[in-house]
Amino acid sequence: MLYSTFYLDDKLMGLPIPSILEIGRSFKIHPVKGAPNVIDGLINLRGKVVTIINLGLAFDVEKVEPTEESRIYILKNNSELKKVEDSDFVLQTSPDNIGIHVSRIADVINVEKDGLNPVPANINHPFYKYVARFNDEFITILEPSNMLNLNEQ
Amino acid sequence: MSILNSEDDTFRSFLVEMGESLQSMEEAISELEKSYDIQVVNSLFRSVHTIKGGAGFFELEKVQDLSHEFENILMGIREETIEFKNEMLPVFYDACDALKEMHESENCGSELNIDSICQGLDKFKVTNGNNTLLDESLKEDIKTNKEITPKTKEEFSNDKESFQEISSEEIVSVEQGQSRLSNPSKEITEETRDIIVEEKKESRHLEDTKKQSKILNHNETIRVNIDLLNKLMELTGEIVLGRNQLLQQFKGSEEKSTLVAMAHMISDLQQIVLQTRMQPIGGTFTKFNRIVRDLAKKLNKEIKLIIKGEDTELDRTIVESLSDPLTHLIRNCADHGIESSQDRLSCGKDKVGTIIIEARQEGGKVVLIVKDDGRGIDIERIKNIALAKQIISQNEIDIITDSEAAKLIYYPGLSTATEVTEFSGRGVGMDVVKSTFEKLGGAIDLESTKGEGTCVTVHLPTTLTIMSSLIVRIDGDRFAVPHSELKEVISVRPDDELRIEKIQNKQVYQLRGNLIPILTLRDITNDFDENTQPYPNLEGDLKSNICKNNSNLKTSNDSQQLFLVLHSGANQFGLIIDSIDHTEEIVVKPLANILCKYSYYAGSSILGNSDVAMVLSANGISQNRKLNFEKTENYGETDNKIVEGQLIDLQEKQDLLLFKYARDEQLAVPLSLVFKVEQIVASDVQSMSDSHYVKIKDKNIILLYLNEYLNIKPLPENLDSFYIIIPKIEDFNVGIVASEVVDSAHINLKMEASINSEAVLGITDINRQLTYIIDLFNLAEQVNPDRFKTKKKLLDPRKNRLLVVEDTPFFRHIEKKYFESAGFKVSQASNGKEALDILLKEPNNIDLIVSDIVMPIMDGYELVSKIKTNKSLMHIPIYALTSYTEKEHQEKALAAGFDGYSIKTNKKNILKSVTAHMTEV
């Protein structure tokens, strides 16, 4: 399974490629007054309105600023995910397309299923799904659905 | 071998068609209940026949059998071999229900027992002479032995010889009136019968759908998959956006004629596509007839349902979701609201309770009203039950207002029913009703008066997506405000009289008598919820992120302020903005799940310049818990738009235009008679001998100076500019000069008797100032005596007693005066019911009736129908006198039974037609 990896500060994280619609940069982000800071704002993606989450603020660290290096990952929505052919790949994001603003993009890696470890108990975080090992580095694979659904009440 | 494969497309479309047939059958049966009409029977027959045909094709035995029996009876009624009786109706309903059950069940009810219904239908079959004659001929013709091959009808009728051999048992069953032949060519034999029927009864043709039957809309239609329509809507939305972007791009350019042409075409396209999604709400309403009928029976009450505004159109997706909540509201009316006949009589009410369900368009919204004249909501009981269920505390009981208490019914679990009936009482209804309407973007209001009734009003947006909006800037960001929620824009300068004022640190503004709250965007976002935790449910190492994105929100300062007046239902408030950009048609895209809890945003939109703007929602803002609108409901008298949806009867209130002539004297004219008000500069006035003219849009308007007609002080000297009021009266093209236009007023008009001046209708007190009410009709007469003079015909003293029926006291007064001056003896009634009472008491005391159409309690249409069907009253000529000027209303009035029709503002015509009639008589 291919994963696209990216940096949040110095931490390396990844998302499965089949869940990504596109990765873009230099979008004009329109802030939403009254929404929590973790929401960077809305963008116009060729006629679609996509809500962008700031990864830094989601993890409660420094805010990711729009720079030359920062990227926005647009995730597929639930109905687009259904069309993914890999039957092993079960992921739920959200009914709408959501974007994640990251600070720096890294390589695409290939990790087999057995290379995926469950998250160790002392690093328990609702946004982490797996920890993968690649070339002597640890990469945390994210679980987007918790991030994308703010207030489940 | 059954083709009952639900994946099969043909079967599915049969089911859809069957559903439609069933619906029109119900409507037809309900029409038959009201009155017998052979057209209705025909349409019912056609529907049953269609179902039967399809059922046969798919071999759905039970459906086929039942529809066959049903069809037989209907056939008999059509051909007058069976007499229609009202007792047939419940059996028809039962048959319809059974068919519905089969329609909805998995295998089309193959295990359903329909025997009792079939027997019920059977009972009505009367084999009288004609019937056996039919069977005889059938028998005869069938006796010949030839093979049947499927032939066209023409061939068949030419060749009656070719019928299949039938055994004797089969003939016997034919004789018994049942054509349940057991051979495979059932279909063909049916056709045979049909043909023979046609042959035998030459005079009877199958009446065609070409005749206009009110219930059946057999318009040309095509069935289209709803996904396709949705995509069409979306794409049209995108085209609209693209057009907006293009227009923006070519704003400064000279050569954009093609673009402009296309832009217009796209607007048209948008309109039409929208219409594909619009559906008249009437379809949903008709089934309520049956529901009310059943409820009335089961609850042992007498209830009448009045449906109004069935033609009002709504987006299809909304219409479908309305059915359930409306049903619930109606059930509530019937169950909780309307009292038993005895109770009603003892309160002095009519024995039959009335539930009115009405739909109408207002601005960009559709208003739905469900109201009853029952016992109203018992506030005390509600409070007590809420207390018992611990929804409110003892303290709160004492301090909440009545309207707040009424809103307690929206709490889940609250029900004041003493027992749970099958219709209501479980207390789960109203909260679902409220949330359903709110999910559709609507707002629900409730009014109730104990002992008199309850009225529930719902405001719904007509389309969910494309809206014309005002783009404004607040603190650097752009926001869109839909026009339908925008009432007006107000600019307050530092030297204006009316300013934004503060009460306890909150801003307010006096808008024509009402104090409205003035909000800023910061207020709205702050008040929403003060402790936002982005991820409240998640555990783990998360700090809360309370700091909201409220940077750059300014607080108000003292220079010029601009604000929008927004309204949601009957609530108004102001929103401070920085500037207005432009108007744009936008496609409102719903917010992502993450953001949808911020209900002050209706959604987001992409503007012409590709920016994303948030769309504000007045509904959402007003539902903010920190805004308490109930207390403002009954404050003062304000303009009409605010009192929409209130139960208060508007009949006593009149709209007037207040103005001044001399500096300190106030005058008024009825607003409904005012065509225009224009501001004139003194230098524009041209004089010719004694008359003064002014040119408005190429028309010369003669100026009328009121002090020449009544005893008032003259105009102030040296006025640079003044106003002219142009009345809406035919042949009266003047401009009544005013020095100042004060305001419009909506008040109870209690006039004191006139002073010695014909041009003055009366004097009254408005806003603590003595005001003359001008009689525009009289002025018109004085100005143009030839055109307006009414000859005092010598009317036959035995035939000059006229009854004026009119709810607006103002017009009633005018009409009375007018007819009296023409020589009639006038009596008055303020609504249809009063009129009827007067007439019934002494039917020979009135010679002529002149009636308004729109009146409370009993309107003109009802009145005329009651009069024309009453033996002692039907000889009295009745004229409609109304403010509607469209031809369709005239035709409707004449069709309803009025002997003639006149428009209120055309006074000359009224008298002419009325007296013409008198001399005929």
Order of helices and strands of chain A: EEEEEHEHEEEEEH
C-alpha termini separation of chain A = 34 Å
Q: Provide a count of the helices of chain B.
A: 27
Query: Helix amount of chain B, in percent?
Result: 25-40%
Q: Kindly state the number of beta strands of chain B.
A: 34
Q: Mean pLDDT of chain B, as a whole number?
A: 74
Mean pLDDT of chain A: 85
Q: Biggest sheet of chain A, open or closed, and with what strands and sense?
A: 6 strands, mixed
Radius of gyration of chain B: 34 Å
Structural account:
The complex is a heterodimer of chains A (153) and B (921). Helices cover 9% and strands 42% of the residues of chain A. Chain A is mainly beta. In chain A, the strands form two sheets. Chain A has a six-stranded mixed sheet with strand order 8-1-2-11-10-9, with no helix packed on it. Chain A has a five-stranded mixed sheet with strand order 3-6-7-5-4. The longest helix of chain A has 5 residues, at 78-82. Chain A is globular and about 45 Å long. The mean pLDDT of chain A is 85. Residues 1-7, 127-154, 156-187, 200-218, 537-557 and 632-651 of chain B have low confidence and may be disordered. In chain B, helix 3 (61-78) runs antiparallel to helix 4, helix 10 packs antiparallel against helix 11 and helix 24 packs parallel to helix 25 (860-868). Chain B is globular, with a radius of gyration of 34 Å. Chain B has 921 residues and is an alpha/beta fold. Classes of the chains: A mainly beta (153), B alpha/beta (921).
Give a brief description.
The complex is a heterodimer of chains A (153) and B (921). With 153 residues, chain A is mainly beta.
Topology:
The complex is a heterodimer of chains A (153) and B (921).
Chain A: E1 2-8, E2 11-16, E3 20-24, E4 39-45, E5 48-54, H1 55-58, E6 71-75, H2 78-82, E7 98-102, E8 104-110, E9 116-118, E10 128-134, E11 137-142, H3 144-148
Parallel strand pairs in A: 2-11, 5-7
Antiparallel strand pairs in A: 1-2, 1-8, 3-6, 4-5, 6-7, 9-10, 10-11
Chain B: H1 9-34, H2 38-57, H3 61-78, H4 88-104, H5 115-123, H6 129-143, H7 153-158, H8 168-175, H9 186-200, H10 226-249, H11 257-277, E1 278-280, H12 282-299, E2 303-308, E3 313-315, H13 316-337, H14 341-346, E4 353-362, E5 365-372, H15 379-388, H16 394-399, H17 402-406, H18 429-439, E6 443-449, E7 453-461, E8 466-474, E9 477-482, E10 486-492, E11 500-503, E12 506-511, E13 514-519, H19 521-528, E14 561-568, E15 571-577, E16 579-587, E17 601-606, E18 612-616, H20 618-622, E19 653-660, E20 666-670, E21 674-681, E22 686-688, E23 691-696, E24 699-704, E25 721-727, E26 734-738, E27 740-748, E28 760-766, E29 769-774, H21 776-783, H22 785-788, E30 801-805, H23 809-821, E31 825-829, H24 832-841, E32 848-851, H25 860-868, E33 878-882, H26 887-896, E34 900-903, H27 907-920
Parallel strand pairs in B: 2-4, 9-18, 13-15, 20-29, 24-26, 30-31, 30-32, 32-33, 33-34
Antiparallel strand pairs in B: 1-3, 4-5, 5-7, 6-7, 8-9, 8-16, 10-14, 11-12, 12-13, 14-15, 17-18, 19-20, 19-27, 21-25, 22-23, 23-24, 25-26, 28-29
